[in-house]
Predict the 3D structure of the following.
Amino acid sequence: MTLFQKFEKMMENKKKRYLVSFLTVSAILILSWLFFSVRFETNDDSAIMYNIAGYRSGHIEIDPIFSGVLWGMLVGAGYYLLPQIPWYTLCSMAVIGISHIIILQSMLKRRKKSSTLLIYIILFGMGALYSTVNLQFTTTAMWPGIAACILGGGYI
């Protein structure tokens, strides 16, 4: 049995597909965030972050200007517990990462070939890389939206 055949056999197992997706996406995102500086693409995100963290008002706001209250509650809880950590940025990165794991896992479910990983890496480099190092609340919301469409469409 060749290495490629072993990979295809391994992709039959849902847990192994998620593991491969998790490891691949984690490696790609970590490398992206190490080699490219992560920043906000617009000043809207810094305004949202300052609003949630309470930098302007002196207290944590759970109702951000442009995003949902649930997002504000999640990020605000982080600032409440440990205000010195950049929770807005970390939560945005986590949402992007989880979304990409779901996307790659669905690709591997439909096409159980090792070349699927290469296809994903090429697609990531062509379009996703920019939005993962230049954070913006709209593109941070786009990735879970794509993942939700994939989940809702029964691709997983």
Summary: The radius of gyration is 18 Å. The first strand starts at residue 39 and ends at 40. The chain has a mean pLDDT of 87. Helices lie at 3-10, 14-35, 43-53, 69-81, 87-110, 115-133, 137-152.
